[in-house]
Structure formats: structure tokens, C-alpha cells
Amino acid sequence: MAQQQSPATQQRNFKYQIWLMLIIVFGVIAAGFLMVPKTEQQRQRMIELFGTTNQGALVTPSVDLSPLLADLYAEEKPKWQVIIAGGTGCDASCEQILFNTRQVHMLLGKLTGRLKRIYLPETNQLQALDLETINREHPFLQVSAIDTQQLSELLENSSAAWDMQQPRYFVVTPDHQAVLYYSVDNDANGLLEDLKHLLKYSPDR
Are the beta carbons of 194 and 82 closer than 8 angstroms? Predict the structure, then answer.
């Protein structure tokens, strides 16, 4: 038969177990505080080490698009946004992006109301657009002309800077921070996955 431990030994072993659990718990908490990035460089380093599940490309650092977006629906409840911009008019690539983002918007189901889509053509391209067709095919799409040079300047120091010859689309927070971007080559399912994740874990304002 196995030799039974004395009450004193059992009590001592129990204390060791308690101390071990406390060390593990506080060790994990301390490690968490130490690992929280304090600068943008540290945040990027952590992303490189651990990777990301985003399907779109990260906008690093995130870019404040308030100068372009603050006045759009200013009276409404803040929403997440998908912003389409760039390109030389609404060509086949632009039409494909508009179609894909419309489908994604509908596939969000009960989360649809927390998102809005905005197309930002260049001001001098607005006259050439068939707005009647766009409004008919995309009834919940906001079209607002911009000076694309202003958008280019906002993005120039970020990973999302590009020559704007081809259209791109961005995921933008309710606070107008561009956080993800996509090109026409991206699979629209990736946008759907990213939006579901972001909307699920962000508060509904």
C-alpha cells in the first residue's frame, strides 16, 4: 500500500500548489503588461512576430480620414465604412469593386445597418459618371466627389499610399480611421470575414 502523507506534509504541499498558481497567474498578467506595444514601431514588430488574421492589408500607421469624411452623414450615428477611391473613372475594375462591396454589405445580415459604403470619385470625373445607373444598382451607396490629391497626401506616410491609377477600397472605423485596404485583386470574401470580425468585437454606438 502507498504510504500516506502526514497532515503536515499535505499542508505544506498544498501551500506550494497555492504559491505556484499565484506565480503563474501574476506572471501571465505581468507578461501581458510588458507585451503591450507602447509605440507604433513596437506594434508593427508584434504583428511581424505573431502575424495577423486580417484578409486585407493593414494601414500602418492608421490614417485619419476625417478631413474627407467628417461632414458625410454628420448627423447620423457613427458607422463603420467601406470607402472606394482611386482609378480613372468608374471603369470595369471600379464596377467590380462596387458590385463586390454591395454583395458583402448584404451578406452581413443583421450587421448591415452598422456599415455604410462611400464611393469617392475625383471631382473632375463626376460629370462623366452615370449616376442614375449607380444609384439604381447601389441604392445605399453614398457618392461624394473629392480632390484625390488630398487623399493622396493623407495616405502618403502610410503603407496604403499608392499612385491611385487603380481603385482601392478601405475599411474605416466610426472615428474615420482607415485600418485596412484592398485592391481589385483581393477576394471579396476576405472583406466579408474582416468586417464580420470587426463588427462582432466592436461596440455598437
Answer: no
The region of weakest confidence among 5-9, 111-115, 186-190 is: 5-9
Strand ranges inside 65-135, DSSP E: 80-85, 115-120
The helix-helix angle for 92-107 and 188-201 (nearest 10°) equals: 40
Q: Which domain holds residue 69?
A: 54-201
pLDDT in tens, 141-151: 999 888 889 99
CATH code: domain of residue 116: 3.40.30.10
pLDDT band with cut points at 50, 70 and 90 for residue 40: very low
Q: Which residues share a beta bridge with 80?
A: 115
Mean pLDDT of the region 105-120 = 93
Which pLDDT belongs to residue 78? 83
Measured CA to CA, the distance from residue 8 to residue 14 in angstroms comes to 10
pLDDT for the residue numbered 71: 74
C-alpha 54/C-alpha 7 separation (Å) is 55
| Residues 56, 57, 61, 63, CA torsion sign | negative
The C-alpha torsion from 89 through 91 and 97 to 98, rounded to 10°, is 70
**Residue 83 DSSP code:** E
* 58 in a structural domain: yes
Residue 197: inside a domain:
yes
For residue 41, being part of any structural domain is answered with no
Within 13 Å of residue 105, how many CA atoms lie on the same side as its CB? 22
